[in-house]
Design brief:
Layout lengths: L2 E2 L16 E3 L12 E2 L5 E7 L4 E7 L11 E3 L9 E12 L6 E8 L5 E3 L8 E6 H4 L8 E8 L3 E13 L7 E2 H4 E3 L5 E3 L4 E5 L8 E6 L4 E6 L7 E3 L5 E8 L5 E2 L2 E6 L13 E4 L2 H4 L13 H11 L4 E7 H4 L9 H12 L3 E7 L16 H14 L4 E8 L10 H18 L5 E5 L7 H8 L8 E6 L6 H14 L6 E7 L9 E2 L6 E2 L2 H20 L4 E5 L4 E3 L4 E3 L10 H13 L3 E5 L6 E7 L5 E7 L2 H4 L14 E5 L4 E6 L4 E5 L5 E5 L4 E6 L6 E2 L19 E7 L3 E3 L6 E3 L4 E9 L5 E8 L1 E4 L5 E3 L3 E11 L6 E10 L2 E11 L1 H4 E5 L9 E2 L5 E7 L4 E7 L7 E2 L2 E3 L12 E9 L4 E9 L9 E6 L7 E6 L12 E8 L3 E14 L1
Parallel strand pairs: 13-21, 15-22, 23-24, 23-32, 24-25, 25-26, 26-27, 28-29, 29-32, 46-53
Antiparallel strand pairs: 1-2, 2-12, 3-6, 4-5, 5-12, 6-11, 7-10, 7-12, 8-9, 8-11, 14-16, 16-19, 17-18, 17-20, 20-22, 30-31, 33-34, 35-36, 35-43, 36-37, 37-42, 38-41, 39-40, 39-42, 44-47, 45-46, 47-51, 48-50, 48-52, 49-51, 52-53, 54-65, 55-59, 56-57, 57-65, 58-64, 59-64, 60-63, 60-65, 61-62, ...
Helix pairs in contact: 4-6, 7-8, 8-9, 11-12
Length: 970
C-alpha cells in the first residue's frame, strides 16, 4: 500500500487534511479500459496501450462540428468518493496539428457544473492531484466523472494512467468481504481433502481478523490473518457450507466470503443415469461479460468444474441453430463445442436443446423451421458432431408459448424431421420432445400429439416452477395427457425446475440494475431444492434438472436465479445439491415412510443393499403456495423414532455429518425444516412402496409406420390461426392451402396421400417423392364441420404398404356460422373483481364503450393482471357453448407479453381448477378475439368464473374489452 506524507502540488488552490494518506485500494480498478464509456462529439476508440501502460483515447471529428471528448467513468458498488481527500492521475495528449492548441480541458464530476479545469494538455505526461473538497460540494454523491478536453483539430489522441483516489481507508464505506477474499477453489467449492486456502485481494488494507461460521450462523473458529497478507490456510473441515467474516481497525468490512466443502466425486463411481441433474445453460449464461467486473474470465471452465464437483453426470445445455449454421452447410460450433468438450473431459454428458432457426430455414414461419430437409440435415449434423458428448437431444424449448407462435401441427412436423435427423446421426441417443412451459398441460400439447408426435420422441419433457404441494396434481395431469395419447411408457423429465418461493432478489447487486438474493433467500432456495426434487422423484419423475447452475437474472433484473452468484462462487443450494448426488445419486428410491404428523420420510436402497432415510419437518415450503412469509429461525423441529438398534451415521442437507445412537432398541431423531439423510440402515421398509413403470422409447412402433414420410402444410389467408395455436378458423367455404410431402430417407418412395375432414380438390391419385426430397401440392378444401362448427383436417397416407404418420389441423368456423349471445353484465365494472400483482383500477369508458383495466405495478414484480368475472348462474351458464368472443385493445400494445382467457371451475379468488386459453396479443386498435372450448379438455358447463387479462412488460399498462359474447353452434 502506498503511503504519502504529503501530496504533490495541486492544480487549484486548497489544502488537504494533514496526516498520513493512503491510496484507496479500490481505485486500482479505475484503470481498466472497460470502465470508460464513449462520450464524444466524434468517433471515439478506447483501448489499452500496453507500451504506455495507459488507457488510450483516439477521437476523430467531422469538420465544422464542436470538437469535444470526455469519456465517462462510472463508480461501482463499493466505490465512493465520500470522505476521500483527492484524486490523482497522469495524462498527456497529441493532436494531428500540434500547434492547434486546446480550447479547454476538464474533469467533470457528475453531470453539472462546476467543471474542474486541467492545465493545458501537453505531449508529455502531467501529474494532476485534485482536492475533492475544492472540486465538488458533496463527494459522496458523485457516481461518475469525465476526464477530457476540447481540441482545435480534427484528430486527437490522449492517454490517462495511474488513476488513484487518496484518503483514509477507515473512513471509507465497508468493503465487501466477498471481494476482499478469494478462495483457491473454482467457484469457492472445495473438494473434501483439498487445502482450504484463501487469499486477500488488494482491497484489504492490512491483515484482518477472521471468523468462520457454519450454515446455521454458529461460530466454529476465529483468528487473525497471517501478517503481510499471506495466504490463510484453514484446518480441514467436514463437508458443508461456511462463511468467513472479516474485521479490522484499519477499515470496515461487510458481508462474508462463503465457500462449500463437498464430497470428492472421484472417490467412487457415480451413477451415470442418476435422477439428479442441473440445467447449466453455460454456453449462454457464462459468456464473458464486460459489465461484470467480478467475472472470473474463464466462466465456461469454472462452471464445468463446479458441475463436476457437484457430482453431476448430466447437465442441460443450449445451442442456437442460427449461430451454428448461419448459411446452409457452413457450420461454426462456437462456444457450444468448447463447453461440450469441457464437460466431457469431466465425465459429464449433456441433454442438448436447440432452437432459433436461421432465417434461410424459415419459409412461411417466424420461429420454427419450415424447411424440413434443412431441419433433418442440421439435426443429423449436430448429432454426429457432438456424439459421445451428449446423453440426448431435445427439439425446441417451450414451444407452447412464445418460442413457437406457429400451429401445433407445424411443431409436430418439425419435430418429426428433427427426430429422424437425430437418430440418423446418433441412433443410440434418445430424443426428447421440446419442453412444455405449461405444467398444467394446455390444449396445445394435445394438438401436437394428435399429429402422431408420439412416434417421434422417447422422453416426455416439461418445465415447472410450481411448489411441492402442487406436484401431485401436476403429475396426474401429465399422466392423463400421456395416457390419452397412448404414450404412458415414456420417460418423464423435468428439464427445468426452479424456485420462485423466495421472491425477487432483495439486495442490490454490484452490477447496476440487478437484484440478488439476500443470505436468507439463498437459504430458502437451499431448503426448496431437495424437497422439490425428492417429491418429484417420489411421484415417478425419471430425471429432474434444477434451474439453473450459472448466474442469471430475469424480470428486468429483479429475479435472481442460479446456484452460482455473479462472481461465480456457489450459493448454499449448491452444497445441498452435492449432498443429494453423493448420498442418493446411486441409490434406488423405494417409497415413502410415515414418521409422524408434519414429518416426511423417503426410503432409498443404497448400492450395498442397506437403506437410507431422507426426512424433514414440513414448513411453509411444503404447505403454502405463492411467495409465503418464511421464518427460517423457526426450525420446525419435530421428534420421531425408529425401531433400530445401534449407532448410525447421517448428514444434514449441506453434507455435514452427524451420528445418532439408539437406546433400548429405539432411535430418536429430530426432523427440522432442512432435510437430513440417515444412512447405512440395515433394514427399513417404506410404508407406501413405489412401483416404477416400464419405460420404452418411440423406436418400438411394430413397423406399422413409415416415419420418414412427413407432411407439412402452408395455409393461405383463408385460414386464421387461433390464439392458443390449437386450430384454425376457416374464413371461406373453399379454403386454399399447400401440402408439402417430405421423404426423409435415402431412396425414392411412391404412395397415396389421404385427406379426411373435408372435400379436397387438386389431390393426385399417386405421388412420387425423391430421396431426401419433397413434393408440393396446391389444394383446396371444403371442411366438414360438426354441429358445434368444429372439425379436423387429417392428412395421412400409404407409402409402399406402410402408413405415414398423420398431420392433423383442428378447424372451426367461428366467424361465419356461430351464434353469439352477449354477456351484458361484463360492461359493469362492479361485476369485475380486481386480481393483479399491482394496483388496479376498473372503470367504464363511455367514449370507447368498453371496460378499461389499468394496472400500475411496483418495481420488480412478475407483472400480471387477470380481473375476475363471476358468472351469474343459471342465466349465464356456458353449457353447450363452443367458445367466447370479445373485442380488445391495449395501451401500449407492444408491452403486452401475453394474453389469456382463464376458464375457472370455481369462484375463489386467484385459485381453483383452471384451463388457460391463449389469445393473440391485442393491438392499439379494437380487434375481435376468439377462444374455443376444446372437447375433452374443458366442459363449459363447469365454468364458474372467467379471467380475461394480460401479462405485461411495462410498469403501467391499460387494456380495454367490450362485447363479450358466448358462442354457440347455430
Amino acid at each position: 500500500m502506498k503511503k504519502l506524507g504529503s501530496l504533490a502540488a495541486c492544480v487549484a488552490a486548497g489544502a488537504l487534511m494533514a496526516g498520513e494518506i493512503l491510496v484507496l485500494p479500490w481505485s486500482a480498478g479505475l484503470n481498466r479500459v472497460e470502465r470508460f464509456e464513449k462520450n464524444s462529439s466524434g468517433k471515439l476508440i478506447v483501448s489499452r496501450d500496453t507500451k504506455e501502460n495507459a488507457i488510450r483515447f483516439d477521437a476523430e471529428f467531422s469538420p465544422g462540428t464542436d470538437f469535444w471528448c470526455y469519456p465517462r467513468l462510472r463508480l461501482r458498488s463499493g466505490e465512493s468518493l465520500e470522505k476521500a481527500q483527492a484524486i490523482r492521475f497522469e495524462f498527456r495528449a497529441e493532436q494531428k496539428n500540434p500547434d492547434a492548441g486546446y480550447q479547454c480541458a476538464y474533469v467533470m464530476f457528475e453531470n453539472g457544473m462546476p467543471y474542474f479545469p486541467l492545465p493545458a494538455p501537453k505531449p508529455e505526461y502531467q501529474q494532476i492531484t485534485i482536492p475533492l473538497a475544492d472540486a465538488v460540494k458533496n463527494p459522496g454523491a458523485v457516481r461518475q466523472l469525465r476526464i477530457g478536453m476540447n481540441p482545435r483539430s480534427e484528430q486527437l489522441t490522449f492517454f490517462v494512467r495511474n488513476i488513484e483516489v487518496l484518503g483514509d481507508p477507515a473512513e471509507q464505506p465497508p468493503v465487501d468481504a466477498a471481494e476482499a477474499v478469494t478462495a483457491h477453489a473454482p467457484g469457492a467449492a472445495f473438494i473434501q481433502g483439498e487445502p482450504l486456502r484463501f487469499k486477500l485481494t488488494p482491497l484489504a488494507v492490512a491483515a484482518p481478523r477472521w471468523t468462520l461460521k457454519n450454515w446455521k450462523g454458529e461460530t466454529i473458529r476465529s483468528g487473525s490473518w497471517p501478517q503481510e497478507k499471506q495466504e490463510l490456510l484453514l484446518e480441514p473441515l467436514p463437508n458443508g457450507y461456511y462463511t468467513l467474516e472479516l474485521a479490522s481497525d484499519r477499515q470496515k468490512f461487510s458481508g462474508f466470503r462463503s465457500f462449500a466443502v463437498v464430497p470428492d466425486p472421484a472417490a467412487y463411481p457415480r451413477n451415470p443415469e442418476m435422477y439428479f441433474a442441473l440445467d447449466s445453460a453455460q454456453s449462454w449464461l457464462a459468456m464473458p461479460n464486460a459489465a461484470n467486473y467480478r467475472h472470473p474470465g474463464n466462466g465456461y471452465e469454472i462452471v464445468s468444474e463446479v458441475a463436476r464437483r457437484a457430482g453431476l453426470k448430466m447437465v442441460r445445455e443450449r445451442l442456437s441453430w442460427s449461430e451454428c449454421e448461419p448459411e446452409p452447410g457452413k457450420f461454426d460450433w462456437r462456444q457450444y463445442m468448447t463447453n461440450a468438450t469441457l464437460l466431457a473431459e469431466r465425465g459429464i454428458k449433456i441433454s442438448g436443446m436447440y432452437h432459433n432457426a436461421p432465417k434461410w430455414a424459415r419459409t412461411n414461419t417466424t420461429h420454427l423451421p419450415g424447411d424440413l430437409l434443412a431441419t433433418y440435415h442440421f439435426a443429423k449434423k449436430v448429432a454426429e458432431t457432438f456424439r459421445g458428448k451428449m446423453a440426448d437431444w431435445e427439439f425446441w424449448n417451450e414451444q407452447d408459448i412464445g418460442f413457437a407462435p406457429e400451429g401445433a401441427w407445424d411443431y409436430a412436423s418439425a419435430l418429426k424431421a428433427a427426430y429422424l435427423g437425430f437418430k440418423a446421426g446418433a441412433p443410440d441417443q434418445p430424443v426428447a420432445i421440446g419442453a412444455y412451459a405449461h405444467t398444467h398441460i394446455s390444449p396445445y400439447s394435445d394438438a401436437v400429439m394428435e399429429s402422431d408426435a408420439g412416434y417421434y420422441f422417447d422422453i416426455f419433457n416439461i418445465h415447472t416452477y410450481a411448489r411441492p404441494q402442487e406436484c401431485p396434481e401436476l403429475l396426474e395431469r401429465i399422466r392423463a395427457h400421456l395416457a390419452r395419447h397412448n404414450v404412458s411408457d415414456r420417460l418423464i423429465w423435468f428439464t427445468e425446475n426452479g424456485s420462485s418461493m423466495e421472491g425477487n432478489g432483495q439486495l442490490d447487486s454490484y452490477m447496476t440494475g440487478l437484484k440478488v438474493h439476500s443470505p436468507e433467500q439463498e437459504m430458502i432456495v437451499a431448503e426448496f431444492l431437495p424437497k422439490m426434487m425428492i417429491v418429484l422423484q417420489s411421484l415417478g419423475v425419471d430425471r429432474d434438472f434444477f434451474f439453473v447452475l450459472s448466474p442469471y437474472n430475469e424480470r428486468n433484473g429483479y429475479k435472481d436465479w442460479g446456484l452460482m452468484r455473479r462472481d461465480y462462487t456457489v450459493k448454499p443450494g449448491f452444497a445441498v445439491f452435492a449432498t443429494l448426488t453423493d448420498k442418493l445419486g446411486s441409490a434406488q428410491y423405494e417409497g415413502t415412510r410415515k414418521l409422524g404428523e408434519g414429518i416426511r420420510g423417503f426410503v432409498y436402497r443404497e448400492p450395498t443393499g442397506r437403506k437410507s432415510l431422507v426426512f424433514w419437518s414440513e414448513s411453509e415450503i411444503d404447505t403454502e403456495g405463492g411467495i409465503p412469509v418464511i421464518n427460517l429461525k423457526d426450525a420446525k423441529a419435530r421428534e420421531f423414532t425408529l425401531n433400530l438398534t445401534g449407532t448410525f451415521e447421517g448428514v444434514d442437507a449441506f453434507g455435514t455429518p452427524f451420528t445418532a445412537a439408539s437406546k433400548e432398541g429405539t432411535l430418536k431423531l429430530t426432523a427440522t425444516r432442512m432435510p437430513a439423510i440417515l444412512t447405512g440402515i440395515p433394514a427399513l421398509e417404506p410404508t407406501e412402496r413405489f412401483l416404477p413403470g416400464k419405460k420404452k422409447g418411440a423406436d418400438d412402433d411394430g413397423g406399422r409406420y413409415d416415419r420418414t414420410i412427413v407432411f407439412r402444410t402452408e395455409l393461405s389467408d383463408d385460414f386464421e390461426l387461433l390464439g392458443d395455436k390449437t386450430g384454425v378458423d376457416v374464413k371461406k367455404d373453399k379454403a386454399a392451402f399447400k401440402l408439402q410431402v417430405f421423404n426423409l430417407s435415402d431412396r425414392e418412395k411412391t404412395g397415396r396421400v389421404v385427406i379426411s375432414g373435408g372435400k379436397v380438390s387438386g389431390l393426385p391419385d399417386e405421388v412420387k417423392i425423391p430421396a431426401f426430397g419433397k413434393v408440393e401440392l396446391p389444394l383446396v378444401i371444403v371442411p366438414e364441420l360438426d354441429e358445434s362448427l368444429q372439425g379436423k383436417i387429417r392428412i395421412s397416407g400409404l407409402f409402399e404398404g406402410r402408413e405415414a404418420t398423420a398431420s392433423v389441423i383442428p378447424c372451426c368456423r367461428i366467424t361465419g356460422l356461430s351464434r353469439k349471445v352477449a354477456l351484458p353484465d361484463t360492461n359493469d365494472p362492479s361485476n369485475w373483481r380486481q386480481n393483479s400483482s399491482g394496483k388496479m383500477t376498473i372503470t367504464y369508458d363511455h367514449a370507447e364503450k368498453g371496460i378499461r383495466f389499468r394496472t400500475q405495478f411496483p418495481a420488480g414484480v412478475d407483472r400480471w393482471t387477470y380481473p375476475e368475472y363471476i358468472l351469474q348462474l343459471p342465466q349465464e351458464s356456458l353449457r353447450g357453448a363452443i367458445g367466447l368472443s370479445f373485442e380488445v385493445k391495449a395501451l401500449p400494445a407492444d408491452k403486452v407479453k401475453q394474453m389469456l382467457v382463464m376458464a375457472v371451475m370455481g369462484t375463489q379468488r386467484e385459485k381453483g381448477e383452471t384451463v388457460h386459453l391463449p389469445v393473440a396479443k391485442p393491438s392499439e386498435k379494437w380487434e375481435e378475439r376468439f377462444v374455443t372450448f376444446s372437447e375433452g379438455q374443458l366442459d363449459p358447463d363447469r365454468i364458474r368464473q372467467l379471467r380475461i387479462g394480460i401479462n405485461s412488460n411495462a410498469d403501467d399498462i391499460t387494456y380495454l374489452i367490450r362485447n363479450v359474447k358466448v358462442l354457440y353452434a347455430r
